[in-house]
Amino acid sequence: MFTGLVEGIGKIGWLRATGKDVVLGIEPPFPPDECREGDSVAVNGVCLTVTGLNAECFTVDVSQETLSISTIGSLKTGDSVNLERALRLSDRLGGHIVLGHVDGIGKIERMTPIGKSWRVRVVIDSALSGYIIEKGSIAVDGVSLTVNLCGARFFEVNIIPQTGRETVLLRKRPGDSVNIETDMIGKYVEKFIGSSGKTAEGQPGRIDRDFLQRHGYGE
Hints:
By secondary structure, the protein is mainly beta. The protein has helices at residues 64-69, 161-166, 184-193, 209-214, and strands at 8-18, 21-27, 40-43, 46-53, 58-62, 80-85, 104-114, 117-123, 137-140, 143-150, 154-159, 177-182. The chain is 13% helix and 38% strand. The strands form two sheets. Strands 1-2-5-4-3-6 form a six-stranded antiparallel beta barrel. It has a six-stranded antiparallel barrel with strand order 7-8-11-10-9-12.
């Protein structure tokens, strides 16, 4: 589990294909020995497991499934990546709850300077739009951001100078792809209520739209 507050920018030191999977050697902005084998690290928002360490880098294995649903497969030696180690129970939850389980890939449509910040529009698959709301949270390449505007096939976020300095987002250009993870709360609400208010077994659910309206939620 992560917060979407990126610790710093790392670099892909090397990569090696192992069949249909890939092993990455990542040079972090912190001493590699601060990690342990088995630790979780978010790499551009994708939760990966540390499998090895040396003085310069840590290694992670990336499965074919992860390569197929994220931008990890397009990384090259020398590329910069956002890194965040897993949340500790003693940490402040300054962003939002991020699992590192990418929902899909978005594409940057435009980047517009507004004062010292940038407004970024990301085009997404329409299947994701139901989980994105204005003023809600979203993770873009592992960065926790607030949604300023959203539509059926896009959303917009604001990148402040601090975020631009500490992440790779402002190194992107229109046309570049980014990993998208929507807020997990919306997914659970959909699961509990569903379009018909029924459970997975087809039985009437205890929580449906009528239940919520009777208790003062909704119109």
